[in-house]
Write a structure and sequence with these properties.
- The protein is an all-alpha fold.
- Helix content is about 80%, strand content about 0%.
- The chain has helices spanning about 1-30, 35-55, 60-85, 90-115, 120-145, 150-170.
- The mean pLDDT is about 90.
């Protein structure tokens, strides 16, 4: 627990810095490109992570981060389906990463604040590793702008097979 208290804030700053750098990289690399979708998504993510460190909704950091992740998903969905109206592969990385983070934050908040657990156990390690790897995955997706783990391909395959199975039933 002492190690997490010392290293945790530095990891948080590194993650915020990563989202900010992903935004700045996309901003500079797409200056002459009329398609600014990636820049806009990177801005949404960087803003969310920076604001979550500045403005608190609640006393619990985990609950605060959960609220910001849910708000970020809502903003991304509205942006994706109502403003940009096109499919970009990295949006699935952000949806999956934020959903995964939200599940872990609900679990750790419940364990620490509701169940009042003070003893470290495997959930705390899963949370620490899972949230940070998820954040790094989202940063890499924003920088590379590629479907490097196949999430978008998998989503399209599921939609295709869902459509095929529904047409067989008719």
């Amino acid at each position: 627990m002492v190690i997490n208290d010392v290293i945790g804030p530095y990891i948080g700053v590194f993650i915020e810095w990563g989202f900010l750098m992903a935004f700045l990289y996309n901003l500079v690399s797409r200056l002459n490109n009329p398609d600014k979708a990636i820049v806009q998504v990177a801005f949404i993510m960087a803003s969310s992570y920076l604001l979550s460190d500045l403005y608190k909704f609640t006393h619990s950091n985990y609950l605060n981060w959960l609220i910001y992740d849910i708000l970020t998903v809502l903003v991304l969905v509205m942006w994706h389906y109502h403003i940009i109206k096109k499919d970009i592969s990295i949006i699935y990385y952000l949806y999956i990463g934020l959903a995964f983070n939200s599940i872990l934050m609900i679990a750790i908040h419940t364990d620490i604040y509701i169940l009042d657990n003070k003893e470290q156990w495997w959930l705390w390690s899963v949370y620490s590793l899972g949230v940070n790897l998820s954040d790094i995955m989202m940063i890499i997706a924003l920088v590379l702008n590629k479907d490097f783990l196949g999430f978008a391909k998998c989503y399209k395959w599921i939609l295709k097979n869902k459509t095929l199975s529904q047409s067989r039933c008719i």
